[in-house]
Amino acid sequence: MPITTIHFVRHGKVFNPDHLLYERLPGFHLSDRGRRMARATARFIAADPDMSRSTTVYASPLDRTRETAEEILTALNARRAEQGLPTLDLVTDDRLIEAGNEFRGRRIGHGDGALWHGRNLALVHNLWKPSWGESYASIADRVGRFAQEQVRRHPGEHLIVVSHESPIWSYRHLLETGHPEHNMLLRHTALASVTSISYDSETGRVVGIAYADPAADVE
């Protein structure tokens, strides 16, 4: 039975001194620490016997995911050069993008945070169903459609996919529990972490989920 494994990587820490909810806004790049986190994860991927054989690197089109993916590509392509293999290029896909959010561009959780204004409380009355933006069902559906497409396209291969916390966790939660709804405060998707999901390449059925946090100690 051929197995396709998609390694979902969350981007590294973003430079955001004003503590804004950046959502899909342009111009939010990795911080210096975020770059170090991305490099730590890139080294982890390149050193792994399976992940180092990845044939494609995908990313959300946003700055922070593309920058994380570029660090991974640098490490992977160095490994591939040693083996006489052609270099890989980054492929972006809109289905991997961050969830839409009505609080975009606002300051959250620090000082006069938007969440604490009375006019916004109705948007956050239920943490399991994001009335403040794109539903978890919509998020999980688009990531799931992307994943199944890649399983059919890349039977028996490993792929690296750089995305965001909500898309990765909503999809994983759907696979593990049968529903994508969850408490956003209880996600298990650290910055620059790797969530590896393996599929039967013929049926698309999930056969395993693993998690690693190679950048946990990066300062």
Automatic annotation (TrEMBL):
InterPro entries: His_Pase_superF_clade-1, His_PPase_superfam, PGM_Phosphatase. SMART domains: PGAM. Signal peptide: none annotated. One of its GO terms (molecular function) is phosphatase activity. Gene3D superfamilies: Phosphoglycerate mutase-like. GO terms for cellular component: cytoplasm. PANTHER family: BROAD-SPECIFICITY PHOSPHATASE YOR283W-RELATED, PHOSPHOGLYCERATE MUTASE. This is Phosphoglycerate mutase.
